[in-house]
TrEMBL record:
It comes from Streptomyces cyaneochromogenes. GO terms for biological process: recombinational repair. Signal peptide: none annotated. The lineage of its organism: Bacteria, Bacillati, Actinomycetota, Actinomycetes, Kitasatosporales. SUPFAM superfamilies: P-loop containing nucleoside triphosphate hydrolases. InterPro entries: DNA_helicase_UvrD/REP, P-loop_NTPase. It comes from the Bacteria. This is Uncharacterized protein.
């Protein structure tokens, strides 16, 4: 490999992240695990570029379309001319690879067992076109997907964190490794380069299982638990954050699509310096589908699409929507672990109603109550 064909490493890569990439040979399947903020998405983009340099088609896959957009932006800054690499959703790749008649199950998702049989029947037919697959947030896909991918791809590299399993079709690291085969290697990447110490410490309160990650050294402000009298009060607070921090990317994470739409109407009338953005998975194209995640301003996103993203400031807008949920439930704690760890510098957990939601009780010392 000549120097001219070598991608320039991202200037923000740490020595540990570079060591992680060096530990990934260009043959065989690998599972890379790490906590939020360890740089898995960035490493996934680098891994895809490295594999593309072999000349084989390479895809960087995610289940989330919004994460695909983020990964595509990363690839644009890394790819070398002439290397066939692109970001795609798993859904889009399956339709492209198996056709729009790809068999599905009753829940509307793909029939992985049937697709595995198709992949086995086509094994070796067009070796040069068999792609390398790199999967980000791989815990969101079922073992069935990986059994199929093992046959449909030349190699599969999975970046995952089993403490962030929010989908109904998810996998543990062991399940992913077993599905890809006994020869699959495991690599771990440590460190948290995103969150402040205060934000990471609050996230630890909600983490379920896994090895306790190192708490970052960088210090910041305490997260805030804030009561809002209504949606107008919430929108005014978000507008105030945008005015005080005009260069920030502010992620507003909601659990209710109605709240999202109401907030957008109010924010669009608030005269913000940057037009607010809203992501809707129901939109097929246009302003509610294709976002600019790199520019400053407010982005309203449902919690189901927040994984893999990061923002300077995060507002969890409607914590009261979880009031009826058992505060010890793993799915609830995972959801808050994911949402909290999206924040780089500032975090607000907002709620409405007459009583503090039970899962926000007992946080004294980790947060300011307002």
């Amino acid at each position: 490999m000549t120097t001219a064909n070598t991608p320039v490493l991202h200037p923000d890569l740490t020595p540990a992240q570079r060591d992680c990439l060096d530990a990934l040979p260009l043959t065989g399947s690998r599972v890379v695990s790490g906590p939020p903020g360890s740089g898995k998405s960035l490493l996934a983009a680098h891994r895809a570029v490295h594999l593309a340099l072999t000349g084989r088609p390479t895809l960087l896959l995610s289940r989330s379309n919004l994460l695909r957009q983020l990964l595509n932006g990363m690839l644009q800054g890394l790819t070398v001319p002439g290397t066939p690499v692109e970001a795609a959703t798993v859904h889009g790749w399956v339709l492209r690879h198996f056709g729009y008649g790809a068999p599905r199950t009753q829940d509307g998702w793909f029939d992985w067992a049937a697709l595995t049989q198709q992949a086995a029947a086509a094994l070796g037919e067009n070796e040069a076109a068999t792609p390398h697959l790199v999967v980000d947030e791989g815990q969101d896909l079922s073992p069935g997907f990986y059994r199929m991918a093992r046959l449909a791809a030349a190699t599969v590299t999975v970046f995952a964190d089993e403490c962030q399993r929010l989908t109904e079709t998810n996998s543990t690291l062991t399940e992913i490794t077993d599905a890809l085969g006994r020869s699959t290697g495991r690599v771990e990447i440590a460190g948290n380069h995103r969150n402040s110490r205060e934000i990471a410490s609050l996230a630890e309160y909600f983490r379920t299982g896994g090895t306790r990650p190192d708490i970052p050294f960088r210090s910041g402000t305490l997260p805030v638990v804030r009561h809002y009298s209504g949606t107008t009060d919430l929108a005014d607070d978000i507008a105030g954050l945008a005015a005080r921090h005009p260069r920030d990317r502010i992620g507003v994470i909601v659990n209710s699509l109605r709240t999202a739409a109401d907030l957008m109407r109010r924010l669009e009338r608030a005269g913000l310096a940057h037009e607010p953005q809203l992501y809707s998975s129901a939109a097929s194209s246009g302003r509610y589908r294709d976002l600019d995640l790199a520019r400053p301003g407010v982005v309203v996103v449902h919690r189901a699409s927040a994984k893999g993203l990061d923002f300077d400031t995060v507002v969890i807008a409607d914590a009261e929507s979880d009031s009826a949920t058992d505060p010890t439930a793993a799915i609830l704690r995972m959801a808050y672990y994911v949402m909290i760890t999206r924040a780089r510098q500032r975090l607000v957990l907002g709620w409405q109603g007459s009583r503090l939601p039970r899962h926000l009780e007992g946080l004294h010392g980790w947060v300011h109550m307002r």
